[in-house]
């Protein structure tokens, strides 16, 4: 794993290694979307990972999809994220807040205004989601008007500004995993006949407008973008033109000189090689379900600069130290991934704490 410990950069940030914390929904915000009291401790515990990409954070009321996810569009939200940013920085890490508009991946029971979800087209994803009333079918969304699309771009811009005001080092635009931007990409989720639907150029238009607005507001070196080529999450089918859409999109984002692209890799290695070739800046690659011993494979192959880590980072606040020492890891407790209190959130032990417990028990 030698290459894992080489220094690198993201935008203007200097990182001492090639690991990062992947964005993970934890559903522990207050009802108004303000990050909960334990969130600052949770993120600061993991600061040794260097670059921390936050859980998906809605840029507006309409952007919320799941219960008790955080927002970044009110003064209270900014105050909550400021506490997190301050603690992360004090612990030596950097924080990028992921801006996630859920689009149709939502339910009226989960949002503050209880309105119908919005999307490029009035097409339900055909899946269920957890709500305050249990697991329910996601309803048919309302199609965004052209004016509302412009307003949503503005919501992303304002959220990016709020993130920087809160002390974050940057933002990651969530263009993946079945959420709003990805819904514009999908051939089966975008039936629009205006300039936001139909051709590859039109289906990519919204994502590029969001990226341009964010870059203009906070700077390219503070802006990342997440994609998930070929992943059928949230009922999305990119169709035969899916790979071609990314072949068009990546150079457009490269023209904006974004700090990084974050690929949730679905297994198309040929496309990943093309993205690597077309992308001049830092590339993050997260292969779902990869064994820990393969974490450096893409870096060794020159296909990635940074390897984001999800559940292993969740369960091991000192993951960097454990990997360097080849120490045993805590196992993630999936029952505590979403919602709840400190259990499965801030109570995973570090090696030091585990050693103290062994000593106190005479082991």
TrEMBL record:
Occurrences of domain NADH:flavin oxidoreductase/NADH oxidase N-terminal (ranges): 8-329
Protein family according to the UniProt entry: Belongs to the NADH:flavin oxidoreductase/NADH oxidase family.
Keyword Oxidoreductase: yes
One Pfam family per UniProt: Oxidored_FMN
CDD domains linked: OYE_like_FMN (cd02933)
GO CC term (a single one): cytosol
Cofactor dependence: FMN
Keywords: Oxidoreductase
Protein name in UniProt: 2,4-dienoyl-CoA reductase
Entry GO MF terms: FMN binding; oxidoreductase activity, acting on the CH-CH group of donors, NAD or NADP as acceptor
Gene3D superfamilies xrefs: Aldolase class I
InterPro entries: Aldolase_TIM, OxRdtase_FMN_N, Oye-like
Matches recorded under SUPFAM superfamilies: FMN-linked oxidoreductases
């Amino acid at each position: 794993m030698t290459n894992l410990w080489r220094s690198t950069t993201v935008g203007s940030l200097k990182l001492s290694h090639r690991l990062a914390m992947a964005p993970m929904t934890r559903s522990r915000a207050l009802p108004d979307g303000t990050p909960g009291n334990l969130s600052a401790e949770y993120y600061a515990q993991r600061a040794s990972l260097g670059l921390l990409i936050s859980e998906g954070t809605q840029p507006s009321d309409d952007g919320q999809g799941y219960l008790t996810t955080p927002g970044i569009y009110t003064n209270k939200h900014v105050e909550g994220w400021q506490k997190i940013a301050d603690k992360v920085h004090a612990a030596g890490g950097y924080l990028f807040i992921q801006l996630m508009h859920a689009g149709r991946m939502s339910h009226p029971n989960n949002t503050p205004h209880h309105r119908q979800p919005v999307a490029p087209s009035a097409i339900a994803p055909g899946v269920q989601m957890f709500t305050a009333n249990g697991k329910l079918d996601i309803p048919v969304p309302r199609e965004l008007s052209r004016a509302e699309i412009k307003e949503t771009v503005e919501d992303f811009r304002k959220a990016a500004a709020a993130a920087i005001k809160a002390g974050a080092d940057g933002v990651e635009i969530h263009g993946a995993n079945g959420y709003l931007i990805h819904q514009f990409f999908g051939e089966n989720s975008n039936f629009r006949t205006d300039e936001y639907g139909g051709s590859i150029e039109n289906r990519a238009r919204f994502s590029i407008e969001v990226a341009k607005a964010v870059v203009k507001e906070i700077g390219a070196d503070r802006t990342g973008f997440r994609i998930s080529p070929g992943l059928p999450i949230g009922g999305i089918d990119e169709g035969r033109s899916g790979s071609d859409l990314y072949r068009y999109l990546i150079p457009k984002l490269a023209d904006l000189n974004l700090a990084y692209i974050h690929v949730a890799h679905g297994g198309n290695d040929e496309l990943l090689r093309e993205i690597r070739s077309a992308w001049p800046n830092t590339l993050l690659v997260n292969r779902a379900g990869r064994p820990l011993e393969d974490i450096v494979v893409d870096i060794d192959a020159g296909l990635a600069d940074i390897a984001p880590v999800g559940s292993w980072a969740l369960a091991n606040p000192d993951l960097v130290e454990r990997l360097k020492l080849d120490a045993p890891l805590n196992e993630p407790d999936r029952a505590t991934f979403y919602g709840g209190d400190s259990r499965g959130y801030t109570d995973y032990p570090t090696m030091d704490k585990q050693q103290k417990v062994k000593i106190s028990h005479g082991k």
